[in-house]
Amino acid sequence: MAPSAMQSIDGELTGSARPHVLFIPSAGMGHLLPFFRVIAALATRDDVDVSVVTVLPTVSAAEADHLAGLFEAFPRVRRVDLHLLPFDSSAEFPGHDPFLLRWEALRRSAHLLGPLIAGAEPRVSAVVTDVTLTSHVVPIAKELGVQCHVLFVSCATMLSLLAYVPVHLDKKAGEPEHGVGDVDIPGLRRIPESYLPQPLLDLNKLFTKQFIDNGREIVNADGFLVNTFDALEPVALAALRDGKVVAGFPPVYAIGPLKSHTSAPESNEREPTGSPVAWLDEQPAMSVVYVAFGNRNAVSRDQLREIAAGLEASGFRFLWVLKTTTVDRDDTAELTDVLGEGFLERVRGRGMVTKAWVDQEAVLRHPSVGMFLSHSGWNSVTEAAAAGVPLLAWPRGGDHRVNATVVVSGGVGVWMEHWSWDGEDRLVSGEEIGEKVKEVMSDATVRARTARIGEEAAKAVAEGGTSYRSLQEFIGKIKET
């Protein structure tokens, strides 16, 4: 085994008759949470063995805490530690997003995965990799004769874009002004250039090179696990499965909406006084606006103050999970400094602002929550859909605008297309935010439509539902080895 990779086994080894699945997650809670949920779902079964590659060091405190919680809750899950090779990102990629740099560091250390996969006991039947590592992991798995599936952490529409962009760019290569432009995905829809992840607009960007490399390689995977369900994205799933996006595309298993699993029964104990859920317990039904922009999205100070003004002007109760930095370990700002003198006092009693990690699923399921103001990260979209809570989408970057198209088409909520996102100068005023919050909170049609999609989500994951059957098909596939 390479000296920079170390494998440790937690839990008792079990028989080799069961398929052994090795999960290779990436960095960022938006990527890790779907992995944790699929791992937990398989770890509760008696017919599958599960191992997880743990990349060290973690980028954020949230990652470290959730990994520790996973192994504590599921002692049968084996831990495989991967220590990254040294990588001086400051010289090659100064000022880049720390999570994009982690993906690049993982890619540069990916060759260390070969010995880990080959030396695992019992023998690895299948690898499930994060899409950011596809271009490296798929060839390694194929060389070892191991199935390689991809857990895609965004929507099926975004998967279609990833699959088709290399084809799209090849077609445009001969044009005089070579750029990305609008992407017309066969069998699905046209994605305007303004909806694309911003780094894709510069073909020399690190993210773009990674994106294109992965897009070219994904057709060689054995299958895709996607956190979506047929009633939410029927057109995108059909286009992928029927080979309209890319001919001969691998099987797509829509297994969402993924939900958290615990090894212990739910406690009847009340939440600690002062916790977000305890505060929600004291509020009337469907009276609270929940506000959160994900774990990787830092909104500018000026825009945060406009959001504060909008929430105050709306007159509604609100729970706001506030984030001021990309990496949580760096978030030391005081709330008063961020939101301005007097704000917290003026909203005392009807508004709660916290910088702590919250159980978003529990918040969205709470009967007092009536709306979700969100960046439209895909985990947030699916959690809102499962809870039947209307989402007011305010994309901040990355895949968020593509996700927002699904928010609208899937009936999960509404999208303010002209509201700015990262890199754009325009501030959305507090007055405009407040008016839109009032409008969505009072819209019975939006609420009814979202409630219906929540019912469809429940049907999908119930025994015999579309997502339930997809997961069974995937397990059947890995048992073929």
From TrEMBL:
<protein>
    <recommendedName>
        <fullName>Glycosyltransferase</fullName>
    </recommendedName>
</protein>
<keyword id="KW-0808">Transferase</keyword>
<comment type="similarity">
    <text>Belongs to the UDP-glycosyltransferase family.</text>
</comment>
<dbReference type="Pfam" id="PF00201">
    <property type="entry name" value="UDPGT"/>
</dbReference>
<dbReference type="InterPro" id="IPR050481">
    <property type="entry name" value="UDP-glycosyltransf_plant"/>
</dbReference>
<dbReference type="GO" id="GO:0035251">
    <property type="term" value="F:UDP-glucosyltransferase activity"/>
</dbReference>
<keyword id="KW-0328">Glycosyltransferase</keyword>
<dbReference type="InterPro" id="IPR002213">
    <property type="entry name" value="UDP_glucos_trans"/>
</dbReference>
